Amino acid sequence: MEYLLEHSTRYQYAANVTLSHNEARLLPRNLPWQTCKNTQLNIFPTPLRQHERRDFFGNRVVYFAIEELHSSLEVTVTSQVTTYAPPQFQYGTGPTWEEAKALLAPGSHKHALAADVATLEARIFTLDSPFAKRHSQLADFARNSFSSDRLLIDALQEFNQRIFQEFTYQPHFTTLATPVLEVLENRKGVCQDFAHLAIAALRSLGLAARYVSGYLETQPPTGQEKLKGADASHAWLSVFIPGYGWMNLDPTNGILPNQRYITLGWGRDYADITPLKGVMNGGGHHHLEVAVDVLPQNP
Amino acid sequence: MSNLSSYSQALQQLLNSYASDQGRDELFNQDGQPDVRWQPVLQVLEELGLDGLAERHEEVQQLLHENGVTFNVHEDDLGQLRSWELDPLPYVIAGHDWDLLEAGLIQRSRLLQALVDDLYGERQVIHEGLLPPELVYTHPSWLFAAADGNQRPEKPRIIFQGMDVYRDLQGQWRLQGDWTQAPSGAGYALENRILLSRTLSNLYREAPLRRLASFLQAQHRCLASLASDHRGEPNLVLLTPGPGSPGYFEHAWLANYMNFSLVEGDDLVVRDGQVSMRTLGGLKRVDVLVRQVTDPWCDPLELSSDSLLGVPGLMQAARRGEVEIANALGVGVLEHPALSLFLPKLCQRLLGEELLLAGPELRWCGEEDHLIEVLNNLEAWQLYPIHQPGQLLDPKQLSLDEQQALTTEIRQSPWLFTARKPAQASTAPSFDARNQVLYPASINLRFFCLTDPEDRQSRVMPGGLAWVGEPGTPVMQSQTVKDIWVLAPVPQPHVSLLRQAQGPILVTRDGRDLPSRVADSLFWMGRYGERLDTKARLLRETLGQLLDDGQLPLETTLLPDLFTALKLPLPPEQPPLAAARQFIQLREWLMTLFTDQAVDNLPWLFSQFLRNSRAVRDHLGDDAWRVINNLRQKFNGLNGNLGVNSARRHLEDLLVQQAAFFGFCNETMPHHYGWRFMDLGRFIERLLSSLELLKLALVTARQPGIPLWEVVLATTDNLTVYRRRYRSQLHPSAILDLLLFDESNPRSVGFMLKRLHQQLEELPRQEGSPFRSQEHRLVIEASSHLHLVDLDSLLDIENSQAAREALQAFLDALLLPLSQLSDALAHSHFSHVEKPRQLVSLQT
């Protein structure tokens, strides 16, 4: 699929900002199943300094500093993204979840099977991170889908479905600060919450899961035209299958991400892939507007 | 000489009573004879005897206390004064032992450099399974932001590091721990060497021990050469967490010693990609930042977002090479205690060498078999929880429930726990001053290693800091520290360490590049010092009145007015008291000013004064600092059971010490901006309190009249001047002249305004501005009120209500602009920028 992606973020400050240092993780990365062309990042006011680098997880990061007095900040990214079919994971294949867990366990570098670099690198995603910490309640919740000797790929699909069915998508019920245990209790939240919940639950079982940030093409209700700026950022997760690679799950929609998903980047949780963060002097209260468009391009 | 029988009888006795009955003692060789390397020390022992040694011990403690490098800031400002003792007996290392140890330490340094380059670069050691990822990524100093794909950097990541060592019972050196982020103790090691060479000068001049001075010269050279790519004279700063941190005094000491500017996070800003220091003269670029702030707190943008100690944008500036940071950000991960378990293999892999120095006996719970071993016998181990830096848990000290909770925690995240078997170290002779005996003490040693950025060669300081305690005892918890001697084959020339190890002379410290924060602290140090002085003078006079009139009916005395001046309410109304009882009650009431911590009482004023002086420790001379230490001791010793006379003596002493302090400051501080701000603080405070006091005495008092005027003159120390000049009864017009208009009298308002005016003239101005600053205008406003007042209208205050009203209006007209002066100064010069804050992250 070909898309024109446009994501703009605008901050309006109550008081002037005299100096701000910022990091944007807004440039989508290239993947075997995704290529990005003509990617542009426009920042207003124009930063005095702007540098791009790759972070630990391979995401594209842009540092920028604005040193002139400003009362608003606008960051817009546009990119032509082509997506292909992501790697497929067949039912009935791969290791059991206990085998995967054993391969990912600390100290397992001693046995030969786990010596492959991908598994070693995946082990960081078994550890707690600020927004996705392991807990016995989360393990209990997940274990219903992870009966003994069950194949990991099968169990994950069921687990994905279960979150979709048992949880209600409800914007504004949670904030970024809502702990996953509360989400588990209330069974309500948004994509970010479901991704964090699933990640923390899988880590509680000893598996490796990471947070993926990106976009999803939405379809207008039949017979209506698609509204401008109506799309949104989306979040899902990716789970490591030793010997196979990373399998994507979208518990918010209960499906496995397909060509309609655009990947921005990933990390241990939201904190690693925050789209825009900054430290500034001045500013006072602020007002935020975000507009996202994922427009299919006719070939 | 190495035979016991060749020593005098007294020494033989001493050695016989030296009860080293267990383990291994450094004093003796295999034959049970004193080892030849201790000979110079034993000789001194022989000459001095235990009495002589006790004397020297006392002298050393005195010097240690006065120099203040060991000033312990853990406690309350006014809490128990505690610093460690410095043992006059050194820990002696023979030349051949040192060679082995030095080789091991240098190898360790090379290994850690290679390891950290790999960890923040290609991470081969993780990919090859040599180091478990759980160990690395859970350390608080592991910085994902520093692992940004940079390959091996041009410059070594670690310039200066500390390594803790002990000698086990088999005589093997064991490396107990590494300090890579903000190694402390080098300042203490130097200070100890300086003090001991002063106290035991013959011994230190003649003994064949390796000297430290050249190491420090090298350290300065290495740090300065980090900036070799930068143009011009490099600007080196030392970043400290501030006066609240336990290492602050060492930071100040080192900054002075090395001639760096001592800065806190707020003093720095990243603009145009560069790190700059906010100074009175504007921004000044920083080339090399020697940091004493631990990794996660250095940059609130990329690292811990709630850090108030760091500088937003610092990581990026370092990444771009706009500033060099020593040591590089992220190296703290090498301090992980469990790393030691993996070093033998890593040394083979990274250096192709056998590891020379073994570590202590450890288990890392991230390994299944280690975890089982530790949990099977929890009480046999001590635990480092890696997520709580600096903690060492001793399960033996925990209740059963707590042990249970700990076990659960370990099972939940085993990789966070490193277990250590309590170890035994060899002992060395130490002096117990209280009981006047030698005793065998278990010794920890800290050594310092320096890596030259140009050729990457490492060298170890031939000496260091030793402290008494079981292996692994934190140095701050030890009671006793020692000098470390490394013996040289032949006596080495004695090079004075005293402030000689500086590098090239840099631009003056006190000119326009004075950090604004320092100016601020000097100003408030002046104000609080002066307020303390005024309070003490008033209290002294009040106590005098109490002695004279304390048993008379209260309303007939000056005491109510003096209480007003002291801002102290009168004791609550009570049924008429017997005269003696009233006296006691008033005395107790006044004594609360000595003991109660409330705002504006003496202890509070002193702690404010101390806080500000501490923040500018590197701008105060040693003599001035000695006075502060004395005062601090005095305040510690105060209690409420003072008699009136002894309280007066205390106050007089306080006044003398305060005068000495500011005297030293005036004599030794360069008369640049820093000094001017201190002086402005003092004179603003003195002006305000003089005017308030005059207003009370002449206008608003309950009992105006001669006795009160006398008190005012005494409080401002003007009574003698007055008597000499007028030799007559007190008269208001003469008092007004002396205290307001006479510009030759240093305590007159006229004199003080002139002084403020002169000081303001010399402060840096905004370039190109033709206008007078707000603070200038305020002083001019007050001066013109003073000069233009119609004196005749004020003179008859004894009889005329109109004159009293005119005087009050006049004094108020002086007070109003002067009370705004402080804020105006702060606004113009101290540039208290708003604290940077986080942009709230957006949500999907």
TrEMBL record, chain A:
<keyword id="KW-0645">Protease</keyword>
<dbReference type="Pfam" id="PF08379">
    <property type="entry name" value="Bact_transglu_N"/>
</dbReference>
<dbReference type="Pfam" id="PF01841">
    <property type="entry name" value="Transglut_core"/>
</dbReference>
<feature type="domain" description="Transglutaminase-like">
    <location>
        <begin position="183"/>
        <end position="253"/>
    </location>
</feature>
<protein>
    <submittedName>
        <fullName>Transglutaminase-like enzyme, putative cysteine protease</fullName>
    </submittedName>
</protein>
<dbReference type="InterPro" id="IPR002931">
    <property type="entry name" value="Transglutaminase-like"/>
</dbReference>
<dbReference type="InterPro" id="IPR038765">
    <property type="entry name" value="Papain-like_cys_pep_sf"/>
</dbReference>
<dbReference type="InterPro" id="IPR013589">
    <property type="entry name" value="Bac_transglu_N"/>
</dbReference>
<keyword id="KW-0378">Hydrolase</keyword>
<dbReference type="GO" id="GO:0008233">
    <property type="term" value="F:peptidase activity"/>
</dbReference>
<dbReference type="GO" id="GO:0006508">
    <property type="term" value="P:proteolysis"/>
</dbReference>
TrEMBL record, chain B:
<dbReference type="Pfam" id="PF04168">
    <property type="entry name" value="Alpha-E"/>
</dbReference>
<protein>
    <submittedName>
        <fullName>Uncharacterized conserved protein, circularly permuted ATPgrasp superfamily</fullName>
    </submittedName>
</protein>
<dbReference type="InterPro" id="IPR025841">
    <property type="entry name" value="CP_ATPgrasp_2"/>
</dbReference>
<dbReference type="InterPro" id="IPR007296">
    <property type="entry name" value="DUF403"/>
</dbReference>
<dbReference type="Pfam" id="PF14403">
    <property type="entry name" value="CP_ATPgrasp_2"/>
</dbReference>
<dbReference type="InterPro" id="IPR051680">
    <property type="entry name" value="ATP-dep_Glu-Cys_Ligase-2"/>
</dbReference>
<feature type="domain" description="Circularly permuted ATP-grasp type 2">
    <location>
        <begin position="90"/>
        <end position="468"/>
    </location>
</feature>
<feature type="domain" description="DUF403">
    <location>
        <begin position="514"/>
        <end position="830"/>
    </location>
</feature>
